[in-house]
Amino acid sequence: MFGFFGLDVALLYWAFRLNYRHAGAYEEVTVTPSALTVRKVSHHGRAREWVLNPLWVKLDMTEVQEFGIERLFLVAQGKQLVKAAIHESLRNGVARL
C-alpha cells in the first residue's frame, strides 16, 4: 500500500505540470468592418491565423441542453474553418446575441 503512495503523488505532479504547460495556448479574435481575424497560438508558441471577410462568415454553434453553448464555429462557403472552445462568460454573451 505504501508503494502506491509515491506513484499517486508522481502522477498528480505530472498532470499539474502538463496542465500548466498547455495553459499557454490561447485564441485571439479581432473584428473590424473589413476583416475578421482569428489567431490560435499553441502551447508551443506556434501560431495559425485566418483572415476572413466578415460579410461572408457565419457563426455557428454546438449547444448541449444541460450546459448551453459548447463550441463555436466560423463557417464560410459551407466549410467549418475555425473551431473555438469558448470561456463561460463569452458563451453567455454570445447566447444573448
Question: Helix amount, in percent?
Answer: 25-40%
Kindly provide the radius of gyration, computed on alpha-carbon positions and rounded to a whole number of angstroms: 19 Å
- Uncertain segments: none
Most strands sheet: 3 strands, antiparallel
Enumerate how many helices there are, as a single number: 2
Strand fraction band?
35-45%
Structural class of the secondary elements?
alpha+beta
* Number of E-state strands: 6
Overall, the morphology is elongated
Query: What is the straight-line distance between the termini?
Result: 55 Å
Overall pLDDT confidence: 78
Widest sheet: strand order?
1-2-3
Order of SSEs = HEEEEEEH
What's the helix and strand layout?
Layout: H1 2-22, E1 26-31, E2 36-41, E3 47-52, E4 58-64, E5 68-76, E6 79-85, H2 88-96
What can you see in these coordinates?
With 97 residues, this protein is α+β, with helices and mostly antiparallel strands. The chain is 31% helix and 42% strand. Strands 1-2-3 form a three-stranded antiparallel beta sheet, with no helix packed on it. Strands 4-5-6 form a three-stranded antiparallel beta sheet, covered by helices on one side. Strand 4 and strand 5 form a beta hairpin.
Structural descriptors:
97 residues, alpha+beta, 3-stranded antiparallel sheet, 6 strands, 31% helix, elongated
Q: What's this entry about, in short?
A:
The chain contains two helices and six strands. It has about 100 residues and is α+β, with helices and mostly antiparallel strands.
